[in-house]
Amino acid sequence: MSYEPPTPPANLPTEIVNTLNDASSEQLRDVATYADALAEHKEREARLEESADQDEVEERPDNLPDDVPTKATITVKEINDNRYYYWQWREGDQIKSQYKGPVNSGNTE
User: Fold this and answer.
1) Domain range summary for the chain, segments of one domain joined by +
2) Alpha-carbon distance 97 to 109, whole Å?
3) Is 81 left (phi over 0), alpha (psi -120 to 50) or beta?
4) DSSP string, 11-48
């Protein structure tokens, strides 16, 4: 590992770089965790919007619960170092979720 500080990405605004440079190592780790979760959330929202825009009506999968719409997708959430599958779909401006099961139990996508 280099003794020189890392070079920030060129597309990162200066005010964010300055704020990060002033943060403690613990705060930086919290920011990294939050940024990763936020990026995942935004990517998931974009996928849900994209799938909601499709006019095709898909056949209902056998393993889809009755109270989960056909347009639902499966996402993985990590809670206390455990990973779980959730059905997720959009209803208007809200994103709804329903628990499917733990990742390691054979509840595959």
Assistant:
1) 14-105
2) 15
3) left
4) TS-HHHHHHHHHS-HHHHHHHHHHHHHHHHHHHHHHHH
Give the number of residues written for the chain.
109
For the segment 13-37, what is each residue's pLDDT rounded down to a tens digit? 999 999 999 999 999 999 999 998 8
Whether 52 and 90 have beta carbons less than 8 Å apart is answered as yes
Any idea which residue has 């996928």 for tokens? 47
What does each C-alpha distance from 32 to 22, 60, 64 come to in angstroms?
Answer: 15, 38, 34
Q: Which helix (H) or strand (E) holds 60?
A: none
Residue that is written with structure tokens 């455990």 in the block:
82
Name the phi and psi angles at 19, rounded to 5.
-65, -45
